[in-house]
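Hi R.,

Here are the chain sequences for the assembly we discussed:
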Amino acid sequence: MTSQDNTNSNAVLDLNNPDAVTLNIVLKGSWRLQDKLPPVETITRKLLSDPQLERISFSSDEVTNWDSGLLVFLSKLIGSCYEKKLQVITDGLPAGIRKLLDLAASSSDTKDTSRSSSNESLLSYIGNTTMDLVEGIPDALHFLGESLRSIARLVTRKAQYNRSDLFSIIQQVGPQALPIVSLISFLVGLILAYMGAVQLERFGAQIYVADLVGIAMVREVGALMAAIIMAGRTGAAYAAELGSMQVNEEIDAFKTLGISPMDYLVMPRLLALLLMMPLLSLYAGLVGVVAGIVVSVTVFDISAYEYYQQTLRALNFTYFAVGMMKGTLYGALIALSGCLRGMQCGRSAQAVGQATTSAVVTSIISIVIAASLTTIILQKLGI
Amino acid sequence: MNTINPDIRKKEAQAHITVTDLSMAYGNYVIQQDLNFSVNYGDIFIIMGGSGCGKTTLLKLLIGLKEPAAGDVYFDSDNYWKSGPEKQQELKQRFGVMFQSGALWSSMTLAENIALPLSEYMHLSATEVSDVVSYKLALVGLAGHEEYYPSELSGGMKKRASLARAMALDPEILFLDEPGAGLDPISARRLDDLILELRDSLGTTIVIVTHELASMFVIGNNSVFLDAESRTMIATGDPKELRDESSDPRVKSFLTRGEQ
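And here is the predicted structure of the full complex:
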C-alpha cells in the first residue's frame, strides 16, 4: 500500500491498491483552481511504474469543495488512462462531476476542428511576408486601373456619385486640415531657418537663409509635410471609413444595387485629395516662409523687408509649380492607399485596425519613394 | 422576358431562379458542391442548414457578390455568371437584398438610404422620390422615420428599414439574409407576416436564409437543405413536408430540433 500526502495544499491525494490490478485514487479536501492542486504526473508516473494495473477507481467522499480545477485534473488523468488502455471506474465520483466529464468527453469526440498553431520560423515568416507583398501587387494595379476608369466615367459624366458627399469630403480634407498643417509647417520652417542661419552666419551669408527656407519649403518640404500629415489624418480616415463599411456589408449593398463602390466611395475621396493637396502644399510652403521671417527678425537681426526681398529674388514660378505638382502626386498616393486598404479590409473590428495601420504605412512609404524619385528626375531634367 | 411585368410574375410553378451543378469554394476549400434546385415564381424559398454549412455564401453567389467555383445561376433563362457586366447590372436591378446586419449606409438618413437606388435608376422628381420613400417606410411600419440615421434605430427597426430599401425598386426577387435573427418573437412574427403579405400582394419571389424553424414553417413553401458534413444539398421541398416525411435522419433531426 502506498500513500502520498500533499500536506502543503488543501487538496489531498491518496493512492491505494485494493487489489493487484486496481489503483484507487482517494481525493480529499478542497479541489479548486486557486488551491494548490497536486500535479497529474504524481499519478501517471505511478501508472507507468506498475505494469500490472488494469483499472483505476476513485473515492471522493471527503472532497469538501471543487470547481473546474478538479475537472481539469480528472480529465487529464482519464485521458492518459485511456492512452494506456486502462479501465476507468468513475462510480466513486460525485454525480455532477461524472456528468460534466461525459459532456466534455462527448464534445472532444467530434471531428478535429482545431487549427494547427502558426508557429512559423523567422525564415518562413520572411518568405510569407514577401509572398504576400508580391501577391498584393496585382490587386493594387487592378485597383489603380479601376480608379482610372472611374475618373474616366467622371469626365464623361457617367459616374454615379453624390455631389454633397464630395463637398463634405473636400471640407474635411481641405479647410479642416489647415490648423494642423499650419502648426507643423510653421515649426518645420522655424527649425529650418534656425539651423540654416546658424550655419550661414559663419560665412557672413546670413541673408541667404531666405533662399534656403523659401526654396526648401515651397519646392519640397511643404508638400512632404502636408502629405505626411494627410497620410496620418486622411489616409487613415479613408481606410477606417471604407473598412467599417465593409464590415457592415454596406459596400456589398452598393454592389448588389449595381452602384459601383469605386464611383460612389473611392472617386470622391480621390478627387477631394487631388484638389486639396496642391493647395495645402502651397499653403504649407508659405507658412514655412513666414516662420523663416519670424526667426530672422527675432533672432538674427534681419529686417522683414530685407528677408521678403531676398525671398522674392530666390523663388520663381517653377518652384511653386513643382511643389504643387508633388503635392498632387502625394495626394493621389494617400487616397489610393487609404481606399485600397479600406476596400480590402476583412470583416472584423481587428481588420479595420489593420487596414488603417497598413494604409498609413503604405502611404508614407509610397510618398517617400515618390519624393525621392521626383527629386532625382527633376534634377536630371534640370528643372 | 427581362421587363418587370406583373403578368409574368403570376406564372406559378415556373422556375424564376435555376441553379445547376453549382459549387462554391474559398480558394481550394470547397464549401458546397453539386447544388441543383430551382425557385419558382412567387415562392418563399428557404435556404437552411446548420451553422457554417455555407448558406450565406450561397446567397452571395445568387446575388452576384461571389463567383461560383463551377456551375450556373439562371434568372429565367439568363445565365448570370456567363453574362457581360451590362447584363449583370440589368439583372441586379431586378432583385433587392436585405443583409444580415441590415447594411444601411450609416452616413445617410433612412430617407437617403431608400432614395439612393430610386434616384440612380428611376427618373423621378425629388417630390416623387420622397413620396415613394415615405410609402416604403410606411409599408414596413416606420412611417415618419425619414430623417433618422441608422445608428438611432433599434435592431428590429434597422432590419425593417433595410427591407424597405431592398424593396425600393419594386424587385421581382427579394433576398433576405437571416431576417429574424436577433429579433424578439413578436417582431420576428411581424416580419414574417410582412414577408407573406409582400409575396401575396406583389407576387414577389422571396429567398430567405434562416434557421428559425418557427418562421420557416409559417412562411416557406420550398427550400433547400445544405449539409456541412457531406458538403452538398441533401433535401429540397416544402419545409413542412420535409419535417413530416423526410426519411433522411439529418433533415428530420434539424427540423425537429433533434427531438426525433
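The interface with chain A takes residues 60, 63-65, 88-89, 92-93, 95, 97, 99-106, 116-117, 120-121, 165 of chain B (CB under 8 Å). The CA atoms of residues 81 and 180 of chain B lie 30 Å apart.

Let me know if anything looks off.

Best,
T.
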